[in-house]
Amino acid sequence: MMSARPRASSEPPEMMPNLPRRLALGLPALLPAGRALAAWPERPIRLIAPFPPGSGTDILARIIAEPLSRVTGQPVVVENRPGANGVVGAQAAATAPADGTVLLMMGTSVGAINPHTVRRLPYDPARDFAPVGTIAEQPYILVAPPNAPGDLAAWLEAARGRDLTYGYGNAGSLIMGAMLARMAGLKVTGVPYRGSTDALNDLSAGRVDFSFADFGAGLEQGRNGRIRLLAQTLGNAFPLAPDLPLLASAVPGFDAGVWFSVVTPAATSPEIVRQMETALDRVVRDAAFGQRLVALGLAPMHMGSADFGRFLAQQIGAWGERVRMAGIEPQ
Q1: Domain ranges of the chain
Q2: How far apart are CA 135 and CA 300, in angstroms?
């Protein structure tokens, strides 16, 4: 004879005949949370931006917080935790409770560059976070003084055999310059600036030979005639500037850009991560949100949790090679 087994039923008294019906009906609410699918989110969400107010990461976080709040039904509060090129905020997120209430804005610097430039980094971007999904991407733009040859191939031909200087105001621009020198066979000397604006000002005046500009700033100054736009750095056409040549068309294999994503503490339950992934995907695919990205010079980037996890691993390896190419030592 088969032994009696508990069965899913709408008749609690038959399952537990010694309990009053009202108490038996209430038992599911008393079960430990792990026995059922997690209801997410049950509380307000903290979205940590690891850079200061007014930074690109902060602006993007505030743009995404409002529609994400609508989708989830809970307030999404942007919390700025700046310091050490994103290290402070990333560490805060990595050590936060894995209860579905904390998200981190992870960009290229925090996710792929810091592991190679920060000595004793207190977090591991692959181990300490669960990937949720990507938000947006943009390239750098190779730029030259306004009187430079306007054709990429002609500029490279004129540049070979000369001693060139390139201005950089951040780590990304420094690394791009070193990549170009190695891959195109150019002889270059980097000139550091306090920021990208100063580097572009000197470029416009002809004090340096080239630079790599952030997409928005470079496009604006190029359209104003202050600098010459030569190429963009992604390996595929960028929808916001489809006519801008690919640097890879003249320097095969050149493919690098800036991306933004959302992650959560690694121990967050897979079910909650799946719900986060669904919510983020709804926001990123919304047409109105896409228009707000375009206004910032960003294109929507659609990767779910699994695809982004693989992409992040690839990016960590690729940026490691680029950092070594630039001769940057961990500090």
Answers
A1: 45-137+257-325, 139-249
A2: 6
pLDDT score at 38? 55
Residue 246 main-chain phi, psi, to 5 deg: -80, 135
- Token pair 């420094």 is found at 174
Cα distance between residue 229 and residue 82, in whole Å: 32
Span of 27-31, 97-101, 119-123, 311-315 with lowest mean pLDDT: 27-31
pLDDT tens, residue by residue, 33-76: 333 445 799 999 999 999 999 999 999 999 999 999 999 999 99
C-alpha atoms less than 13 angstroms from C-alpha of 234 in its C-beta half-sphere: 18
Tokens of 328: 């940057």
Q: CATH code for 45-137+257-325?
A: 3.40.190.150
| Number of helices and strands in the chain (H, E) | 13, 10
Alpha helices in the chain (DSSP H): 12-15, 21-30, 56-72, 87-94, 108, 114-117, 152-159, 171-184, 196-204, 215-223, 270-284, 287-295, 305-325
* 94: DSSP letter: H
Class of domain 139-249: alpha beta
User: pLDDT tier at 112 (50, 70, 90 boundaries)?
Assistant: very high
Global pTM value: 0.84
The CA dihedral of 144, 147, 149, 155, to the nearest 10 degrees, is: -40
d(CA 328, CA 230): 26
Strands 129-144 and 257-265: what pairing?
A: antiparallel
Omega of the bond leading into 146 within 30 degrees of 0 (cis)? no
Backbone angles phi, psi at 230, to 5 degrees: -105, -45
Cβ-in-10-Å burial (0-12, 13-18, 19+) of 272 comes to: buried
According to DSSP, residue 232 is labeled E
